[in-house]
Inverse folding.
């Protein structure tokens, strides 16, 4: 099935103008007449919308990183970026913690010299930018990267992140977790990784 065909659109360069345009598009979509759309177009539209949502997670991570670096949250009366996410944006603390951790992994950072640095997880960041994976995938990749044994070389760890990001493009977060467990077992066969059953009867490496 193909994606909907659209005419090229000239977009502004200003981030503020782009966000305003995205908001206007969302409002317009909210009143769209879906019965006039074919079934194939509906399915293609759903896939396209999910890709847009995934890409927006990358945008949100980059925007938050800029707000954090410049302490812009203080203009809203907050003293910590996590509190601003939780209360200022009304996300609640659990979601705020997820957003904070995701931004640490997929956002571009700025060196003290002003140089733009690649994300901590470049493969994951690229997959998010492509609209191929969502925040839940990023969480799973971050979890397994945290569990990699310290004895592994930096090159092996970097390749593991790239491999996980590649697998995430074709897997659900739960399926990715299973694949990650297998990867951990391969990289550290004598390590402390073991399986246990969760309340939902899912296997997780602890």
């Amino acid at each position: 099935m193909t994606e909907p065909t659209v005419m090229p659109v000239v977009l502004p360069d200003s981030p503020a103008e782009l966000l305003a345009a995205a908001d206007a598009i969302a409002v317009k979509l909210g009143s769209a007449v879906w019965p006039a759309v074919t079934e194939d177009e509906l399915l293609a539209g759903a896939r396209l919308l999910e890709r847009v949502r995934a890409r927006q997670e990358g945008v949100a991570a980059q925007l938050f990183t800029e707000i954090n670096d410049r302490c812009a949250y203080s203009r809203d009366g907050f003293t910590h970026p996590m509190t601003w996410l939780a209360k200022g944006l009304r996300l609640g603390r659990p979601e705020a913690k997820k957003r904070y951790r995701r931004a640490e992994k997929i956002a571009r950072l700025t060196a003290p010299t002003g140089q733009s640095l690649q994300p901590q997880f470049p493969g994951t960041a690229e997959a998010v930018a492509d609209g191929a994976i969502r925040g839940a995938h990023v969480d799973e990749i971050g979890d397994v990267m945290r569990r990699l044994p310290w004895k592994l070389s930096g090159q092996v760890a970097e390749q593991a992140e790239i491999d996980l990001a590649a697998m995430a493009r074709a897997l659900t977060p739960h399926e990715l977790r299973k694949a990650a467990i297998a990867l951990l077992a391969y990289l550290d066969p004598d390590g402390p990784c073991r399986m246990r059953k969760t309340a939902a009867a899912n296997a997780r490496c602890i």
